[in-house]
Amino acid sequence: MRKKQGFTLVEISVVILLLSVIFTGIFTAFYTANSIAKRSGAKRGANRKEILYAIENVRSALAKTYFVDNQRRVLFVGKSDGVSGERNDRIVFASANPYSEEEEAASVREVSFYLRKMQSPLQPDLFLLIRREDEMVDSFPTQGGIEHVLLENVKSFQLKYSERGDKWVDDWNSRTTKKIPRLIRIELISLVGNSFLKYESLAHPGILFK
Question: Does the pLDDT at position 6 exceed 70?
C-alpha cells in the first residue's frame, strides 16, 4: 500500500516566498506607474484655450462695468495682494447684463473675481480662478451669489487700473475716487505643460453713468 505524500513545510514556505516576491513586484510596478501618471497630470496644467476663455471672461465682464456715483450699493473695488508674479488680486463691481430681458434676469449683477487655493497635495502653490456672481446688487458686495471655477493651475492673477493709461495703480475704490477706471490691465500666469506662461489683456469699462 502506497503512502499519500503531501507538501513538506519547506516546500510550502518556498512557494509562499515566491508568491510574495511576485506580488511585491506587481504592486511596486503598479504604484510607480500610478505615481508617474499623477505627476504627469499635475505638470500638464491648463491648456491655452482654457486660459484664453478665462481671461476673456474677466475682460468682457469688466468692459460692461456699471457705475452710478450716488448709489451706495453700486461700487467698484479692486484690492491687490502679493508680489509681482505671485499676485492674488480681488475685485468686486457691478456689471450690466445686455441679455437680461431674454434671460429674464436682472439688468445689473454683482461680479467678483479672485483666487482660491487648489485642494491638491500635488499642486500646493497653485490656485483656482473664481468668478462669483450675484443677481442682486445689495448691501453685501462680497457675499452671496454663485461661484464658478474659470481656470485651474493659476499662479498669479493681477489687475492694474488707470484713468488715461499714463499712470497705473494696484488698488481702486470707487467709494473714495467717486469714479471707475477707464483702463484695466489683466495679467494671468498659469501652468501650461511644464512651464508657467503669462497672458495679458486690456479692458475698457464702457458703461458709465454720472
Answer: no
